[in-house]
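Before we proceed, please read the two lines closing this message. Tell me what the token row says about the fold.
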Amino acid sequence: MATELSAINEACCEPPLADAEVRQIASSVARYPPGPIAPERPTSGSPRSDWPTPLSEAAFHGVAGELVRLISPHSEADEAALLFQLLTFVGNVTGRYAHFRAEQDAHFLNLFTVIVGETSKARKGSSLSQIRYVFRGIDPQWTEHRVTGGLSTGEGLIREVRDGAPRSGKEAHDDLGVSDKRLLVCEPELARVLQTMERDTNTLSAVLREAFDSGNLRTMTKSSSMRATGAHISLIAHVTEQELHRLLSHTAISNGFANRFLWVSARRSRCLPDGGRIKSVDFTQALDGLHRAVEFGTRLSELVRGDRASALWHDVYGRLSEGRLAGC
């Protein structure tokens, strides 16, 4: 056994363990009787049979795809996780300008995205850290002050984007409210949020749904009466598949809460013992393109589809609107 372990040690460990340590491991393992052979588990490079089809190259179009391709060789994060979180950051930093209209409803760029993957193995946190790093070069003030976490109540969320309001009493000062209505909430533990939402008096689910739909929020309780108009709230959350199955209630599925999210399966894309060399990457050209894209987004209003996009939309609209996704 020591010989086999020595070979594995030389091939896989950097630097290799000392011979004495390998012999000690072999001696310890040999004290136990052999057990049944465990079924082979898929590695990060071996997709599960039920794993979603990987994103096509078309998904990595433009400057977003260019940035993901620059980051990817230096990160163990899933490219899908990088891309969707990057798009969520862009949609929030751009603000409440560009939108599509469906009948009388305006749909802005405030995305709700959940990255689903195994704890510590899917590199969900690494994917978010990489995107934060990029956006410190785009808008450091927004990244520092308008990217936050800590969802617990609907009232707490409204407070972060609240309108100004007069205070009563001689010693009171007017509440000037929050001037920047952009807010990107990053929650590394969606499981905690889902548990909180199930409390009888918690308003978080209703406020989040309204934040996604209209950005006009209000609570009327004995202890709090706040409102926010034109709030531009986006959400990134991380969760394991097991927690999601256990904690996402039938109510959250049936009342439209879950429908407002983009659900992204993620796993470790590669093994980088030394963590890559992201600091050596020249982001200059890609960041310049992202700067221009964000600035362009603040000059837009209603968006319309071109002829080709319109034809594609007409082709899938019926199946999407009826929930039949197969073949779309």
About this structure: The first strand starts at residue 100 and ends at 102.
